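Hey, resending since the last one bounced:
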Amino acid sequence: MKYLAFIFIFLSLPTSALELKPVDDFKLTHILSRLVIVNEPIHFDEQGYSIKFYGVDFGGHCAEAEHCRGLVELLVVTTEMGDEGPVSNLYRLPEKHAWAVQKWEHLKSGAQGIYLKSTTFESNRPNAQSTEEVSLLITTFLKAELNTL
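The structure tokens again:
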């Protein structure tokens, strides 16, 4: 009986609930619903910033859905941890069928070099030829440059 009284009192206590409404931002919803992490973040502790890699899968437009290869735009976010909190920059790389981070290194110039591999298919056919391209993303916190190797 004590437990029944306790449950009754507990259930009669006022509760506060926050009603959530959908965000009315089509572009943001479109991008976030297609966002995938391409690589773990790379932290450059001595330089005071980190880089994160996200792919936005825009899907493909093809007649045979089972062989469809979507295009992925690579988003590179650099974040500097300054005295006044984090400051970020966003860089958009071209759409390819696939992106991958191969390795990174400190360059003699003081910048960081990140080797990226992209794959492009000539068509959506199952036996389509693919082309792989290796690029070097040279970055400091404030600047980024993409060079094809």
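The helical segments are 2-12, 26-32.

Sorry for the duplicate.
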